[in-house]
């Protein structure tokens, strides 16, 4: 059977590179209308056009011929972005980020040609619960139950990334634009998270916990369609409340807060792995500081220049291990090297590099010198 052109792959590649139909068409000398036909599988590009698309979009030509795997074919739940703005640039970045999220599922499908992964295991809410009506106390309780389901007490979490990956949550770090700190979705019984690779140690942990909150709390919101601004604000506030309760359980955290000064909070940051800014928000959620005190602390934060970089932010951030460990097992036990896997997967190498947290060079074929005759000069 001949390989079939997959129009969805063209759209994914276009989104990954942040291009409109018109921009891509101008780059490869194809009309916008033709590209639309290609993406909708109403027409297939010529071999010459396919080569141009491959080069411009920086993906293997074979990527356009790779059908979706089992996970990627599953209905995707609503993707939760951090912004509801609808400017052209924001929409472009949202399309790019959602394409990266889909690629996380595609990477899983590529590895599942060699190994079997367990479905995601996360605490599940009763479907009868009206999520949008949850109170702060309700979310505190859900975060506690989530911790208990993961075998956690009320102390600091040593490695948030390892914790979620151990529940078979796909976790990928990628270069996202400022303000696009993370996103997540369910694909059937598989959950995926993408977070920015530019975040500091503490911010990265908060981003992962925030997306975990969406996965636990808002899985069923997909049935409500696109969120209006009011609902969006509620959903984001809930995810941040969950993240705070998950990372800083009320009783144990408050038991160690001897002062709400910035210097005291910096000291707590070393133990809990949570930013000073996030701790201020947590103290406000728990009623230890009021709105005026919270505002004053945040002003102090900015005056010290800590809104971007806080003390302790030089700590090395957590990394993703699931895909890299799988690749290591394939190489050691299955005889499939990274370059071999990359070629077989037919996926964009920059996406694979992000998923495996390796360099693109590690995925390139190893070149060996040609055999040459041995000789020596005559004396």
How do the strands of the widest beta sheet line up side by side? 1-3-2
- For the record, give the distance between the C-alpha atoms at the N and C termini, rounded to a whole number: 63 Å
Query: If helices are DSSP runs of H or I spanning 4 or more residues, what is the number of helices?
Result: 17
For the largest beta-sheet, the strand count, sense and barrel status come to: 3 strands, mixed
What is the helix fraction of residues, given as a range?
40-55%
Shape: globular
Q: Could you report the average pLDDT, rounded to the nearest whole number? A: 93
- Helix/strand-derived class? mainly alpha
What is Rg?
24 Å
Provide the low-confidence segments as ranges: none
Can you offer a commentary on this structure?
By secondary structure, the chain is mostly helical. The chain has 17 helices and 3 strands. The protein has helices at residues 7-16, 21-28, 32-39, 47-57, 70-73, 88-111, 136-149, 160-165, 201-217, 229-247, 250-254, 262-272, 276-285, 291-303, 322-333, 338-345, 349-356; strands at 170-174, 182-187, 190-196. The longest helix is centred in the first third of the chain and has 24 residues, at 88-111. The N and C termini lie far apart (63 Å).
Topology:
Layout: H1 7-16, H2 21-28, H3 32-39, H4 47-57, H5 70-73, H6 88-111, H7 136-149, H8 160-165, E1 170-174, E2 182-187, E3 190-196, H9 201-217, H10 229-247, H11 250-254, H12 262-272, H13 276-285, H14 291-303, H15 322-333, H16 338-345, H17 349-356
Parallel strand pairs: 1-3
Antiparallel strand pairs: 2-3
Helix pairs in contact: 1-6, 2-3, 7-10, 9-10, 13-14
């Amino acid at each position: 059977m001949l390989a079939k052109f997959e129009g969805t792959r063209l759209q994914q590649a276009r989104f990954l590179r942040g291009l409109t139909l018109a921009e891509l068409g101008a780059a490869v000398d194809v009309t916008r209308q033709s590209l639309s036909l290609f993406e909708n599988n109403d027409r297939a590009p010529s071999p010459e056009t396919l080569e141009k698309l491959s080069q411009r979009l920086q993906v293997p030509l074979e990527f356009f011929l790779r059908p979706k795997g089992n996970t990627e074919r599953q209905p995707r739940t609503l993707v939760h972005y951090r912004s509801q703005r609808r400017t052209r640039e924001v929409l472009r970045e949202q399309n790019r980020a959602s394409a990266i999220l889909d690629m996380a599922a595609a990477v899983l499908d590529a590895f599942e040609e060699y190994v079997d992964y367990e479905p995601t295991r996360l605490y599940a809410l009763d479907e009868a619960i009206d999520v949008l009506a949850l109170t702060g106390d309700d979310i505190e309780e859900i975060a506690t139950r989530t911790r208990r389901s993961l075998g956690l007490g009320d102390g600091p979490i040593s490695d948030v990334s390892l914790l979620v990956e151990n529940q078979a949550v796909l976790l990928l770090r990628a270069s996202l634009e400022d303000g696009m700190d993370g996103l997540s979705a369910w694909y059937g019984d598989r959950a995926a998270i993408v977070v920015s690779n530019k975040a500091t140690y503490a911010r990265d942990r908060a981003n992962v916990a925030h997306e975990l909150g969406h996965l636990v709390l808002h899985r069923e919101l997909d049935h409500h369609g696109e969120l209006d601004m009011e609902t969006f604000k509620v959903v984001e506030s809930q995810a941040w409340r969950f993240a705070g309760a998950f990372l800083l359980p009320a009783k144990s955290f408050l038991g160690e807060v001897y002062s709400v000064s910035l210097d005291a909070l910096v000291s707590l940051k070393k133990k809990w792995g949570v930013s000073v800014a996030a701790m201020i928000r947590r103290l406000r959620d728990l009623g230890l500081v009021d709105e005026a005190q919270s505002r004053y602390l945040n002003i102090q934060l900015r005056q010290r220049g800590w809104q971007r970089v806080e003390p302790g932010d030089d700590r090395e951030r957590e990394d993703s291990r699931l895909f890299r460990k799988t690749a290591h097992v394939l190489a050691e036990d299955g005889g499939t090297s990274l370059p071999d896997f990359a070629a077989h997967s037919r996926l964009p190498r920059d996406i694979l590099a992000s998923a495996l947290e390796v360099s693109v060079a590690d995925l390139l074929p190893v070149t060996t010198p040609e055999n040459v005759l041995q000789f020596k000069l005559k004396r």
